[in-house]
Structure to design on (324 residues):
């Protein structure tokens, strides 16, 4: 996999005066990045992923929409598949003295893949596990669902046939047994005439609606390991690594889930704009190898020092290259 946060356009001056982000026109900046991302697509495995964190910029008071301009061109011109658009909520964000617009406190994090089948460990993308329990002899889900209300709705239904009621009772009891055994942590029951479908009422476009029409009910089950993470992440950008160089807000917590979910254990993580080595440090902490590239020798030296600090002598797991 690859993960990176390239220099943003027109935001700051870096050590090298001709580096990406210093172009006079944002379109040239986008073209330069696309050239690099095309090369990433070439070297990443078919089962690999590419996570791109990139912020937006203004020009003459106009918000340019740079992240999405890049993402759409990657899909349309290079054949990437965009799996997720994550909103990185920086929680606090930076100061903003503008009197004619809102404060900017989010950035985009895109997850791209090369093919429809790719490595993904969904267990690493779950929240805290949900816990069900048995209380006074009754099975209670993680959010307090006992099934009593559903049983009453089934019993009083004037829409369900007798056979549908019989099946609904049987399957509901089966679900409660799964709760008791810890096979699922929570559930919701959708009953025809009681709850509306969770997506669309059209049986042509919704399998759930079709199931509701034919069976008279369906269940939504919640995994005991916890629900999957959503696509809005609250990650504070402040530097907790004690870095002496490089003032970009790219934090370690932003890298952890992408690396754990889309890079197999002992796999290789590539960062073509490694800066002071945040991506590589997180990869190392989680048993992954890494390759970092940067045009600034000072950053490369510091990144190597940083990622090797916790395990002196274990440099065989690391490759830090300076781009020539």
């Amino acid at each position: 996999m690859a993960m990176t946060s390239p220099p943003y356009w027109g935001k700051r001056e870096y050590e090298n005066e001709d580096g990406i982000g210093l172009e006079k026109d944002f379109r040239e900046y986008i073209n330069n990045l696309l050239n690099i991302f095309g090369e990433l697509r070439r070297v990443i495995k078919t089962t690999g992923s590419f996570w791109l964190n990139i912020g937006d910029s203004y020009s003459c008071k106009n918000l340019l929409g740079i992240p999405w301009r890049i993402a759409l061109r990657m899909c349309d011109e290079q054949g990437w598949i965009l799996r997720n658009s994550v909103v990185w909520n920086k929680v606090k964000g930076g100061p903003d003295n503008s009197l004619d617009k809102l404060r900017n406190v989010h950035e985009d994090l895109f997850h791209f893949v090369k093919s429809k089948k790719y490595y993904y460990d969904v267990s690493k993308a779950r929240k805290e596990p949900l816990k069900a329990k048995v209380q006074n002899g009754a099975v209670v889900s993680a959010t307090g669902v006992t099934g009593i209300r559903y049983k009453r709705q089934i019993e009083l239904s004037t829409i369900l046939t007798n056979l549908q009621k019989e099946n609904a009772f049987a399957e509901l009891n089966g679900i409660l047994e799964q709760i008791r055994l810890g096979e699922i942590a929570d559930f919701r029951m959708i009953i025809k005439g009681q709850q509306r479908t969770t997506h669309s009422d059209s049986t042509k476009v919704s399998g759930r609606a079709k199931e509701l029409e034919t069976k008279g009910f369906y269940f939504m089950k919640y995994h005991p390991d916890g629900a999957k993470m959503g696509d809005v992440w609250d990650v504070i950008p402040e530097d907790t690594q004690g870095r002496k160089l490089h003032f970009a807000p790219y934090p370690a917590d932003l890298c952890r889930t992408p690396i754990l979910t889309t890079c197999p254990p002992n796999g290789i993580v590539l960062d073509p704009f490694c800066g002071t080595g945040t991506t590589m440090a997180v990869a190392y902490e989680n048993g992954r190898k890494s390759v970092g590239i940067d045009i600034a020798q000072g950053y490369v030296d510091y990144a190597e020092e940083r990622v090797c600090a916790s395990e002196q002598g274990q440099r065989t797991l690391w490759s830090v290259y300076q781009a020539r």
